[in-house]
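User: My advisor asked me to double-check a structure prediction for Phosphate transporter before group meeting. I don't want to rely on an old file, so could you generate it fresh from this sequence?
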Amino acid sequence: MSDKPKSNQWQTLDKDLNKISQIESATAYISRPLIAPGIALAFIVLTVLMAAIFFDATPTNFVVIAAAGFGAYMAINIGANDVANNMGPAVGANALTMGAAIVIAALFESAGALIAGGDVVSTISKGIVDPAGFTETRVFIWAMMAALISSALWVNLATFVGAPVSTTHSVVGGVMGAGIAAAGLTAVNWPTMGAIAASWVISPVLGGVIAALFLAFIKAKIIYQDDKIAAAKKWVPVLIGIMAGVFATYLAMKGLKRIMKIDIGTALLIGLVIGAVCYVVSAPLINKKAEGLENRNKSLKILFAAPLVISAALLSFAHGANDVANAVGPLAAIVHAAEFGDFAAKVSIPSWVMVIGALGISFGLVLFGPKLIRMVGSQITKLNPMRAYCVSLSAAITVIVASWLGLPVSSTHIAVGGVFGVGFYREWHTEKRLKQSRAKRPPELRIAPEERRRRKLVRRSHFMTIIAAWVVTVPAAAIMSAVIFMILNLLVG
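Assistant: Sure, here is a fresh prediction for Phosphate transporter from the sequence you gave:
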């Protein structure tokens, strides 16, 4: 009899403890999505506090302090969106885990920004606005601030909906919108804007075509050969040599601007020499790695995995060296204008601005990058190491060709265009093989046209979302920037 009340007490205690554990689980579940934004906010606040310590908190320097905070916000968004294009194919092909991709990208993006990042940047983002159109320094500062805020907000929104967009084009749109609001339509260099608009079409199509051509070459020379391993021993070192030469040319042109100015002829010569050396070095290594491998496609993935990882790392370095400077251009312009009381077509980027860019990219990548990495790597079309290798190689080649032609291109458009190119080529090639084998199949084994359409290898919903985001990036950023400029002008002007 005396044990019964005790038993009831223990049951009551168990119920109470169960309720408490459920509350703790619910709290953890609700708070988990807030961890990443919380860390990002802490980084932005810390950047603002460090800028306030570095600069005296005077009314003049308050603008620079605020711009530093928005610059950190912009850098976080670059890491969340732009970097996915370099690492997505490698992760989608299972050549890298998500964690390894994030670590490699963070290291190489930061190294590219800090070691080879441009020491001089165009304050007007590729010359789209004439500085002479601004009547006073104050108006110029608010225009650049509006461009910085609007481009960061747009990239943030695109990341939220899962669309990889161009950070550079977002900045271009922001600068254009603020320039029009501040100085009228005549302030915009419309021929330059026309070239940028042309690049929206040319760069992804060119990237897609080059990626498809490389995939066609790999299929013909390696995958569909009777002895796949022997074919791989012959051609994989050649492809590695091409990759090394292309990336050496790319980095010489884009990544070494801080050290020396290299023309395209010299860059191509550097690429040729390094490509030849890498071919000679890689041939025996590939032969050794191919020993004992079965004559099947799965074995080929092993041989392409390491070159794919290296190409992804080099793309991240080149992106950090080239694109980060463009993204922090408005911040560098604000700092220069606030310090010297004037504005110029080109200004030096202070080291602390590049540090904000490098750290912000790393934080953005770690906290928010996996969503876009998965989108680019596996949700548009299925990738393996061979297909992903073609995407990385086409990205570097397209940038070189575009630079030679003088086209302002987006690495985002090129990389995603390469993924589309690989996917659409696979669709075309699969349909071609089906037509060739259809006549040999009995009627009951033939695939119905409706079922073939359902088995498309490129997800049309993602394709349309991404294309729509690309088309509206510049006008959306421009409209947001113009509105923000007018608000800033009213509040502080």
